[in-house]
Specification:
By secondary structure, the protein is of the alpha/beta class. It contains twelve helices and 16 strands.
Length: 423
């Protein structure tokens, strides 16, 4: 179970957030903290209807989530889930429902100012599961279990539900809200990259619904995935004595990589380093001609990521030289880190925080760590965040779980943010 509370579809009417009326009158950037704004927004008949529908329809909402999560979806093979998403968008009455060339599925909830830049709510369709995985969703003691059941089936279904309930209740957002179900998030944010390449100048704010409820990510973490190859001529075991060993070089290099000092504080400089995969050789009775390992390096400070990456490569080159083998490397993935000065105080970040406060969610965390589809918007200087729809455990493992209790609060959060001015 998550450490977060799990009150079944519970909310509490206290707190603050920006009012749409203030935005329409040209309120300044900091207007999001004006007292009473969220209470006024939530009390509007159409918004109140949408929020009440979350509680009234909890059985249907839960079943929609289970149905989506039970549909196999892999990075680069999201077609079956895309069909369900497209059907739900059309049934919700969204405008211009279609798929782009990358496979992203999208539709529009019409806003008041249709000429203004749109606000994007994006959640991803793919999972880290491999083809052949069992996508059966199991329900037990207030928890759902299954591949990608939280990351990001919960976020995707919650976003679709929020858009449907907002439309049915008659909510008209300040600007057009484009709902996007992205592809290949888990393999490099490729769906978001494709979408932003086409929509860049039309986007004024961006919300990725992908994370844990209560977490508000406002930065883009730098990520480097590398594959380090140590190569040698190889030889049969009987002729291997004294011959350069690629596997020995690999072992020595990994040991030295793990001795690199990694910054953990402050959070703006927090860094992560992991050797996730090791491989090489073709048969047990011969030296490996190619021995390799992968590195997953991440840092909230792009300069630190570059520094550590250079240290890793230097270690591998020196180890190869001393061992008498050769070294080369592949870049498997690179996502540039980025931040927007003062973004923590921006309207979109503070609105997200105040909405959660209004809904009675106590554990709220603002973090510059970001590894979701919103990274691409931040790289382009567009105000963007990532939020979650529920809590859970075991992301990216076969034992992944998601808590049912907080899910209603997560959906209400999305509805209130769709109804709020975020730009």
């Amino acid at each position: 179970m998550s450490r977060f509370p799990s009150l079944l579809f519970a909310t509490c009417a206290t707190g603050l957030v920006v009012a749409a009326a203030a935005w329409l009158q040209g309120a300044p950037e900091g207007a999001g903290g004006e007292p009473g704004g969220i209470q006024e927004l939530a009390a509007r008949p159409e918004v109140a209807r949408a929020l009440a529908a979350v509680d009234a329809q909890k059985d249907r909402i839960l079943q929609d989530w289970i149905d989506l999560a039970s549909t196999p979806s892999f990075s680069g093979d999201e077609g079956r889930r895309a069909e369900i998403v497209e059907s739900r968008m059309k049934a919700a009455g969204l405008e211009d429902v279609h798929r782009d060339a990358a496979g992203n599925v999208m539709g529009i909830l019409p806003g008041l100012d249709r000429k203004a830049k749109r606000t994007v709510f994006m959640a991803h369709m793919d999972t880290v599961a491999k083809p052949g995985a069992d996508f059966t969703v199991r329900r037990e003691d207030g928890i759902l279990r299954g591949p990608g059941v939280r990351d990001d089936s919960s976020g995707l279904s919650a976003t679709l539900t929020a858009a449907r309930l907002a439309g049915e209740a008659g909510i008209v957002p300040p600007t057009d809200v484009q709902i996007v179900a992205s592809v290949q998030e888990e393999t490099g944010l490729n769906g978001s990259k494709a979408y932003m390449k086409e929509a860049d100048e039309k986007v004024g704010a961006f919300v990725a619904v992908d994370g844990y409820l209560g977490q508000i990510s406002y930065g883009a973490t730098a990520i480097y995935w590398g594959k380090m190859h140590f190569r040698a001529p190889g030889a049969h075991t009987l002729r291997s004595y004294g011959s350069p060993s690629a596997t020995l070089a690999l072992a020595r290099a990994i040991e030295q990589v793990y001795k690199i000092s990694i910054r953990r504080h402050p959070e703006e400089m927090e860094t992560w380093l992991n050797v996730g995969m090791v491989g090489g050789g073709e048969v047990p009775n011969a030296q490996a001609r190619d021995a390799w390992f992968t590195v997953d390096l991440r840092s909230n400070d792009p300069a630190i990521e570059k520094e550590i990456e250079a240290k890793i490569l230097a270690i591998c080159e020196e180890t190869a030289r001393k061992t008498g083998v050769t070294f080369d490397h592949e870049v498997l993935q690179r996502l540039e880190g980025a931040s927007i000065p003062g973004h923590i105080h921006s309207r979109i970040v503070q609105t997200a925080r105040l909405v959660l406060t209004y809904l009675g969610w106590d554990e709220i965390g603002l973090t510059p760590r970001g590894t979701a589809d919103h990274n691409i918007a931040i790289q382009r200087g567009i105000p963007a965040i990532a939020i979650g729809s529920t809590t859970g455990e075991g992301a990216h493992t076969p034992a992944e779980s998601a808590d049912i209790g907080p899910y209603g609060t997560g959906i209400k959060q999305i509805i209130l943010m769709m109804a709020s001015p975020l730009q």
